[in-house]
Write a structure and sequence with these properties.
By secondary structure, the protein is α/β, with parallel strands linked by helices. The chain contains 17 helices and 14 strands. Helix 3 (79-97) packs across helix 11 and helix 14 packs across helix 15 (454-477). Pyridoxal-5'-phosphate (PLP) is lined by residues 70, 134-136, 160, 162, 209, 214, 242, 244, 271, 273, 278, 283.
């Protein structure tokens, strides 16, 4: 900020923008905010920002190793291929690429969609496809089409953090069903649906990411897929199947999509973001015709149509050669990065931590001991110039406080090793400090260097003391815990985190050796 307290345009010579005079912009004062607050729609009061998007500004800094984004590595796409494709578009379809397109998308792009879906074992009619502005827009349009304020959406716990702002801006009541290594627990889903029914409520849809879940890294088993579509069919509840990662499989056999098991109650969403480029901002939905029509009208109001330039790019890319060659090259790179991250976790994280072992996708979900708050930990990690997504971003009710999402696709192998080493160090400091303060004895060596400042230690000690007091209260209040008479980790965290702890804990073989 300048000495006069005014923010100036960071790049006053951007063409077309204040090229000759940098017009100073004033920061919003509390009074300004108050003035506009009365204008805001009711829904803005429950709107939640995406922690991931908020983090992006921080993690975009060059000096931060970001394991926070959900970023594919776009540097792997050959620049000369990009140039050649754009050149073809310029030569053959310049005016059309620069023009508006149909709301539902160009027929040639729908053909590309059909080819991608065929690669995942689905045969579709291109009339069933709506080309969208990313997979994100499918979530938005489904909400726009199906939700009234207060309607229930069932999602996994944890769920895709980027879906939460969408659900919240349509004022959905999100109910989360826990997961384990086989994905959403469908028995719990049934019990949840029964409970909702008893109170006269019926979810408008069930949102799930069955393949290589973001953020959990797990995949729904075939048995559960069958169960889920059975439940949805019997109860006539829509399932929104979000499948951006299905083709990013590093090991094991592909499982049928929910859409291939049932196309009556499943809305299918996917995207070119992870198999080609998120920059093209193109995804798609396949849905029963009446729903698709409403979504299309919704899309007219949102953006008229998705970018024609991007659509021409995608179709030129598919015309130019085997589209899946690039995906295969990504698989090699991401598989190695996943393995590097798993090895680094085993080397640098304390044995109290656990993590998932994804067979595909972009994410590992790591769970710390319950006394570690990963939102606090992120502040420490940022001081070490490394970032991750704190687990709470994937819950609507404050759960996930000791978990973190780690992305292994966006940075190279050295950066992954170094990033995990740095996070491991801050985690180990916390574990050691907890051990010292509670007399429980940390299971890790004390940090090798004086990383934590006196203020950090004091603040953490105060927080841990408060947590212990609250935990003791919970233990006293919980008959089951009191009966056990112990102060086990599960007792300390209480019911909801106890569930979470069970949910994504790893079998011993994925834990740190030794
Ligand atoms: C599960 C899930 N759904 C949707 C999206 C949005 O993808 P897109 O870039 O296609 O909008 C993402 C992006 O990371 C995702 O992980």
């Amino acid at each position: 900020m300048s000495p006069d307290g005014l923010e100036r345009d960071p790049d006053p010579v951007l063409p077309g923008r204040n090229a000759h005079s940098a017009v100073p912009r004033r920061r919003s004062s509390a009074r300004d905010i108050q003035r506009y607050a009365s204008l805001f729609a009711q829904r803005t009061k429950v709107m939640r920002s995406s922690a991931m998007r908020d983090l992006m500004a921080l993690t975009e800094r060059e000096d931060v190793i970001s394991l926070a984004g959900g970023m594919p590595d776009t540097s792997t796409f050959p620049a000369d291929s990009y140039a050649a494709l754009m050149n073809t578009i310029a030569g053959e379809s310049c005016a059309r690429a620069l023009q508006y397109g149909p709301t539902e998308g160009f027929a040639r792009v729908k053909e590309c969609v059909a080819r991608v879906m065929a690669a995942e074992g689905m045969e579709i009619d291109t009339d069933e496809v709506l080309v969208t502005t990313g997979g994100q827009q499918v979530i938005d349009l489904v909400c726009k089409t199906l939700l009234d304020p207060g309607d229930v959406v069932v999602a996994e716990a944890p769920t895709y953090p980027g879906a939460i702002p969408t659900f919240s801006s349509y004022e959905a009541d999100v109910v989360q069903v826990t997961m384990d290594r086989d994905g959403m627990r469908v028995h719990e889903l049934e019990a949840t649906l029964d409970e909702l029914e008893r109170s006269g409520r019926r979810p408008k849809f069930i949102y799930t990411v069955p393949n290589f879940h973001n953020p959990a890294g797990v995949t729904m088993s075939l048995e559960r897929r069958r169960e889920l579509v059975r439940i949805a069919g019997e109860r006539e509840i829509i399932v929104l199947e979000d499948n951006p990662y299905g083709l990013l499989r590093y090991e094991g056999e592909a499982l049928p999509t929910l859409h291939s098991l049932d196309d009556e109650f499943v809305i299918y969403a996917s995207t070119f973001s992870k198999i080609l480029s998120p920059g093209v901002r193109l995804g798609w939905a396949v849905a029963p015709a009446p729903i698709l029509q409403k979504m299309q009208i919704g899309k007219q109001g949102s953006d008229l149509c998705s970018s024609s330039i991007s659509q021409y790019f995608v179709s030129a890319y598919f015309d130019a050669g085997p589209w899946d060659d690039y995906v295969r090259s990504l698989l090699e790179i991401y598989r190695r990065r996943r393995d590097v991250m798993l090895d680094a976790l085993a080397e640098h994280f304390p044995r109290e931590a656990e993590w998932t072992h994804p067979r595909g996708g972009l994410f590992i979900w790591a769970t710390m001991p319950d006394y570690i708050d990963t939102t606090d930990l992120l502040a420490r990690a940022l001081r070490e110039h490394v970032a991750f997504v704190p687990g709470r971003a994937a819950f609507v009710d404050g759960r996930g406080g000791s978990a973190m999402r780690l992305n292994f696709s966006g940075v190279d192998e050295d950066a992954i090793r170094e990033g995990i080493r740095r996070i491991g160090e801050v985690v180990r400091e916390q574990v050691a400090m907890y051990g010292t303060l509670t007399g429980a004895g940390g299971s890790v060596e004390p940090p090798r260097r004086e990383a934590a400042s006196r203020a950090d230690v004091t603040a953490a000690a105060a927080r841990i003391a408060a947590e212990r007091a609250a935990a003791a209260e919970r233990t006293a209040a919980a008959p089951r815990a009191a009966e056990a008479g112990g102060d086990s980790a599960a007792d300390r965290v209480g019911r909801t985190d106890e569930d979470l702890a069970k949910v994504l804990h790893m079998p011993a073989k994925h834990k740190r050796a030794g």
